[in-house]
Amino acid sequence: MLRTLKEAILGFTRAKTMSLFAILVTGFSLLVLGLFYLALLNLNTLIRYLENKVEIVAYLRDNADQSEVGLALEDLSRLEGVSQVRYMSKQEALDNFRADLGPDSDLLQDLETNPVPASFNINMKEGYRDTLHVQRVAERAQAFSFVEEVDYGRDWLRRMDIFKHMVSVVGLSAGALLGLVSIILISSAVKIAIFSRRKEIFIMKIVGATNWYIRRSFLLEGFLKGALGGLLAAGLIFAATTVFNDRVIPITNFSDRYYLYTVLAGGLLGLAGSWISLGRYLRRV
Amino acid sequence: MIGFRDVSAGYRRTRVLERLSFHIEKGEFVFLTGPSGSGKSTLLKLIYHELKPLSGEVIVADFSSNRLPRRKVPYLRRKLGVVFQDFALLENRTAGENIAYALEVTGASRTFIRRRVSRVLEQLGLADKEKCFPNELSGGEQQRVAIARALVGEPFILIADEPTGNLDPAISLDILRLMIEINTLGTAVLLATHNYGLLKGREDFRRLHLSSGRLVFDGPNGNFAPSAPPAEI
């Protein structure tokens, strides 16, 4: 094992330019992939933040029977996707309205009756904050005779749906394309590195090295180079997010685990690239 | 020890060797001659199994080309020593490391490798070159290192493919003398060359001569005539 490690490290120094090339290509590819994933992660945070604002408000008529209201509240609470239904009385609503108006609340002082309706404020669970589910709950609320009007920001919700769909479609396809390009780039870099050492492989074979002996030092070398590329990418992503957080706006960062994954992904790509490229030379002689 | 039985060989669509049969016995010194393209290198490749025969059988020690799985090929190669025209040395390793390499791949112990390497370096007059890199050595010295690497595993035969092709005449003769010396210690030698100057004065040596992929002469060098009839198959 020690000899294999020595061989792998020697391999670095033997083809310095090629090794550096493979490390840089792996690093760059993983950097682009990482930044892309980071952008998606932040878009998703933004989507979740916006979704939190989804609320269905059902305004009640003033003459609503309190026992019926109670039953309706229970009924709505049981609907699929509903996380919470809160009843807001006329007085509470007026108080809120007043608070919202702030210094202008004097305007309401001359009112003889309370014009603000009572309401059900319905919140949805995560994963149910889309047009389909929200509309179903809104329609159910509207069906009660004492409900005057239901408001849930229909147009806004629809635009939100389209945005989410676009993010997932564009994200997935661009991610897959980037991944594919990275794999092609990394395996080409490894292939070139191995091609530059075909004489060495030939010599190894001629003096009686088994395929496994040759393979393991190249594989370890491929893994180490890939992992170094991954480390480079992880370092750059960390630096970029730190600078962005400090100088621009706070964003969602990768957890520590992701940095480890980036290094591991680099290592595995290097390993796979070496395995595939080596096969051809090992079969030949 | 080495046997060719009715062997034909080639690459894809070209047939390079046609129905070759001969034997090389333990401790023999054999010249393999023939013009460029006559199939000398192909014949050597069949011995170290870089190439499989299209028909016939190549026997090397206990290994037969007809019953040799790919994973066993390295073990066959460890019984041979191979030397090339371009020396085939690893540029970033010293002479000593290049030689040791042939034993490292077999999994030999460090002590054994150190002992064997210094003995071979001594034997080939390279003791003071152990720490030199190939580019610090002359052509002749590089070829000596390559021969040392071929010998370090104590092969039963040394196979040399145009070993003097890149060397001037005086150094070429030195290399030949070295090989003859190695042969007197019991290692068989098969030396492929088209440098016929090397054969001058070596009338008793066995010579195999190839012409257009056929073995046209197999006998003492002194009996060789360019228009010799094909050897009996």
Q: Could you list some keywords that capture this structure?
A:
heterodimer; A: alpha+beta; 2 domains; 9 helices; 71% helix; B: 233 residues; alpha/beta; 6-stranded mixed beta sheet; 4-stranded antiparallel beta sheet; 6 helices; 27% strand; transmembrane helix (chain A); membrane (chain A)
Give the neighbour order of strands across the main sheet of chain A.
Answer: 2-3-1-4
Helix content of chain B: 25-40%
Averaging pLDDT over every residue of chain B, what do you get? 92
Class from secondary-structure proportions of chain B: alpha/beta
Shape, per Cα inertia axes of chain A: elongated
Q: Going across the major beta sheet of chain B, what is the strand order?
A: 6-7-8-3-9-10
β-strand percent of chain B reads 25-35%
CATH architecture of the largest domain in chain B: 3-Layer(aba) Sandwich
Function (chain B): Part of the ABC transporter FtsEX involved in cellular division.
Family (chain B): Belongs to the ABC transporter superfamily.
Protein name (chain B): Cell division ATP-binding protein FtsE
Subunit structure (chain B): Homodimer. Forms a membrane-associated complex with FtsX.
Fold topology:
The complex is a heterodimer of chains A (285) and B (233).
Chain A: H1 2-14, H2 16-51, E1 55-60, H3 66-77, E2 82-88, H4 90-101, E3 119-124, H5 131-142, E4 147-151, H6 154-195, H7 198-206, H8 211-247, H9 256-284
Chain B: E1 2-11, E2 14-24, E3 29-33, H1 40-47, E4 55-60, E5 63-64, H2 73-77, E6 80-84, H3 95-104, H4 110-123, H5 139-151, E7 157-161, H6 169-184, E8 188-193, E9 206-211, E10 214-220
Parallel strand pairs in B: 3-8, 3-9, 6-7, 7-8
Antiparallel strand pairs in B: 1-2, 1-4, 4-5, 9-10
Q: What does this entry look like structurally?
A:
The complex is a heterodimer of chains A (285) and B (233). In chain A, helix 1 crosses helix 8 (211-247) and helix 8 (211-247) packs antiparallel against helix 9 (256-284). Chain A is α+β, with helices and mostly antiparallel strands and 285 residues long. Chain A is elongated and about 105 Å long. The two termini of chain A are 25 Å apart. Chain A has nine helices and four strands. With 233 residues, chain B is an alpha/beta fold. Chain B folds into two domains: 1-79 and 156-233, P-loop containing nucleotide triphosphate hydrolases (Rossmann fold, 3-Layer(aba) Sandwich), CATH 3.40.50.300; 90-154, no CATH class. In chain B, 28% of the residues lie in helices and 27% in strands. Chain B contains six helices and ten strands; from the N terminus they run E-E-E-H-E-E-H-E-H-H-H-E-H-E-E-E. In chain B, the strands form two sheets. In chain B, strands 6-7-8-3-9-10 form a six-stranded mixed sheet, sandwiched between helices. A four-stranded antiparallel sheet of chain B has the order 2-1-4-5, with helices on one face. The longest helix of chain B has 16 residues, at 169-184. The relative contact order of chain B is 0.19.
